[in-house]
Amino acid sequence: xxxxxxxxxxxxxxxxxxxxxxxxxxxxxxxxxxxxxxxxxxxxxxxxxxxxxxxxxxxxxxxxxxxxxxxxxxxxxxxxxxxxxxxxxxxxxxxxxxxxxxxxxxxxxxxxxxxxxxxxxxxxxxxxxxxxxxxxxxxxxxxxxxxxxxxxxxxxxxxxxxxxxxxxxxxxxxxxxxxxxxxxxxxxxxxxxxxxxxxxxxxxxxxxxxxxxxxxxxxxxxxxxxxxxxxxxxxxx
Amino acid sequence: xxxxxxxxxxxxxxxxxxxxxxxxxxxxxxxxxxxxxxxxxxxxxxxxxxxxxxxxxxxxxxxxxxxxxxxxxxxxxxxxxxxxxxxxxxxxxxxxxxxxxxxxxxxxxxxxxxxxxxxxxxxxxxxxxxxxxxxxxxxxxxxxxxxxxxxxxxxxxxxxxxxxxxxxxxxxxxxxxxxxxxxxxxxxxxxxxxxxxxxxxxxxxxxxxxxxxxxxxxxxxxxxxxxxxxxxxxxxx
DNA sequence: CGGCTCATGTAAAAGCCGTTCACATGAGCT
DNA sequence: AGCTCATGTGAACGGCTTTTACATGAGCCG
Lengths: 237, 237
Fold this sequence. Notes:
CATH architecture of the largest domain in chain A: Orthogonal Bundle
Number of strands of chain A: 0
Largest sheet of chain A: none
Oligomer: homodimer
Distance between the termini of chain A: 65 Å
CATH topology of the largest domain in chain A: Tetracycline Repressor, domain 2
Strand content of chain A: under 5%
Largest interface: A-B, 53 and 54 residues
Structural class of chain A: mainly alpha
């Protein structure tokens, strides 16, 4: 049966058997409850049912645990973005918007990961593998921007994909961190963060010359079916 | 002479005489050096030359000190933005861009204030006077957006000023917090955060129908549609 | 000037945390 | 069976936050 190495505080021998995993899980819980600053190493150990010194067999120090979480976060983030982008199907623009929504959804649904990744205060370049994971996640956005840039309307200068990607990233992060989660979400808004970001991205894309109204027949290279006549901020009255 | 109540560790009697101010100053130093997490109450006390218990005569706890700093930060921030906006002189669009630059400059030059304001992890609504200060600062951006919205080209639906303001804020905060300061600034970029934000805002404004080229002779009076010549990202090759 | 009072500072202590080190345990291999 | 080494424990150190009882002296009042 499974009485042996259950997670949590089930009776166990001298050795935990799965401590590293249990610690990561506990840390996620704690960070999502009390923020990356409020999380303590000792608490995580307690929650895993081991002594305060035990975690040091698995992580050099508290920062390394947080870095591990950030690392995992970037991996899940990358996977989520990849899935949202879906290689640009069914059309580049709408896939692009889906990526924006996925960004926000991640920040909202995995606040612990998101804080560890972007708000834990640990230097980006402290851990090379961490930076690599971060760059792989960003690469998705960049690849999407690349495809989008290639669709630039003829006659207009083609925007640098890297710049577009950075712009999209900063918008997404800005919305997520100001309005997206927990404490910050308490700022009163006339619209949801999702709608706010979507409008922002659409206006931006239009500024680059992309036709994002998606009225029938006005779309440049896309075959997206008919949408609204309304602009990116809903129906003007 | 001025041997009496000099700042720092100069000889002093039993009473410091200006401890509250000294603590705020010390905290600013420490936060800018080690981030809002690395800052300790005891360190600030030491730096001011008093015992670790002394600060409690002036601040309920560590969080209240940080909140005080955030408060001051918002006040300076508001003043800086007001000055940058300069009531929309000499013209709305360029004043608007100046506000964006001022935002970034504040984040870069006052990282301690900026972290206390946006990254300290304390709930926005913990302190009503703090939230009020924050709202006064945002009101500048909002007022600028209002003026800008009023200039919307005829024939296009007028964008909601509040939404514009939130968009600008999220772009500015996104760029500042991802690329603007200290650790985050180590991400390698093809351009400066300032240029990145300026381009982002210009493209966004163009997406709203504002003509932002501002080369001599191509301004609003011109009949040429925006975006034909040099874009906001410089000369395409 | 003398004395009172109260804001402001100190010392000491409790409780927490991170971290280290010597030591215990027992899982897995030979 | 016995060895070994990864993994966990207990105790200890120093530092931080916060509280409490006590000390100091600046400002005021007569």
